[in-house]
Amino acid sequence: xxxxxxxxxxxxxxxxxxxxxxxxxxxxxxxxxxxxxxxxxxxxxxxxxxxxxxxxxxxxxxxxxxxxxxxxxxxxxxxxxxxxxxxxxxxxxxxxxxxxxxxxxxxxxxxxxxxxxxxxxxxxxxxxxxxxxxxxxxxxxxxxxxxxxxxxxxxxxxxxxxxxxxxxxxxxxxxxxxxxxxxxxxxxxxxxxxxxxxxxxxxxxxxxxxxxxxxxxxxxxxxxxxxxxxxxxxxxxxxxxxxxxxxxxxxxxxxxxxxxxxxxxxxxxxxxxx
Length: 274
Hints:
2 domains, 5 strands, DNA polymerase, domain 1
C-alpha cells in the first residue's frame, strides 16, 4: 500500500506529465498555425505579382496549380515540371502518363494540366504568329515590325538562342500601364538560369511613340549587357518597335559599344584601375 505522501507524489507526476503533453500539443498547433500563415502569405505575394503581370514561368505554374493543390506549396512542383518538360509549352503539351511520373502529381493533377493544355490549343488555334526559327538581324527586324506594331500595351520579350542561333524559347513581361514595363535583375538571373541560352535578343515596344531609344532604354540595355555577360551569354541585339518603325541597337552600331563598356569584365577592370 502507498502512503498518502507517495500517492501525492504519483498524482503530482501525472499532473506534470499532463501539462508537458498539453504544452507539446500547443507547440505543434503554433507551428502549424505559423506554417499556414507563411503559406497563405506566400500565395498572396505571388497573386500580387500576377496582378502586375511580372511573374516568371515557374511562378505562373505555381499559381496555376493553386486550385489543383489548394493547401500545399506548389513552388517545388512548378520547378520540377519545368525541369522535366523544359518550358511552359512543354508542360501543357506533356502526355498524361508522363506527367504522373513527376513526384507529387497524381491522376487529378495530371488531368488538370492536360485539360488546360487542350484549352490553350483551342484558344490559339486561329493564331498564326510565325516566330522565326533562327535569329538573323534583318529578318528578325521584319518580324518585330509585323508582330509588335499590333500591341497596345508595352511588352518586354527575351528570345533565347542556342549555339546555332536557333530560337528555342521566349519569355514575356508586360504591363497594364501602356507606358512602362520592367523586370528586376534577380528575376532576369532566375530566368537565364532556367533557360540556359547561349545568346539572347531583347525586344520591347513603344505603343504610342517613336522607336528612338529613350535614356531609360539605354540604361536598361546597359543593365542587360552586364547581367547577360555575368552569365556568359551573348547579347545579340535589342529591338524597339515604335509607331514609326523598328530600332536595332546592333544595326545602329551600339551593341559592340555596350559590350565593351558594360560587360562584367570591363566593369571589374575599370573598378580596379580606379
